[in-house]
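Holo model, iron/sulfur cluster. Inputs:
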Amino acid sequence: MLQPPHQPLQVAAVPPQRAPAREDEAGPWHAEAVCRRDEAGLFFAPSKEPTAARLAREEAAKRVCARCPVMVECREHALLQPEPYGVWGGLTAAERRVVLARRRRREVELRKAAATERIAQAG
Ligand code: SF4
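Output:
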């Protein structure tokens, strides 16, 4: 599991199970990340963060992501890993879970449709 590009700037907020950042695993998008240069402290929740503060921080992080040239790559990385914490590619962890659930439902629907098509063609 990778740390996001912004992670080295805020080690204290990192959940302990996350591995150190590895450039070779991150891919070329990692070097172009806006959050790599600045914006530390926005992407991961400090412990016991009040809800209003969390929502404000996440919105601020999303604004940074919105101007990031590698947002799509970052988002896909976080969805494919999947990354369980923080804002990645403009999505919170909860939003990524929703996207992943939709993708799984869509895959099931496509498999069912393909099976139905094969049965129709065979019969
Ligand atoms: S999309 Fe957001 S979290 Fe991802 S690299 Fe860019 S600024 Fe960082």
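Confidence is low (pLDDT under 50) at residues 8-24. Residues 30-122 form one domain.
Archived with the compound record.
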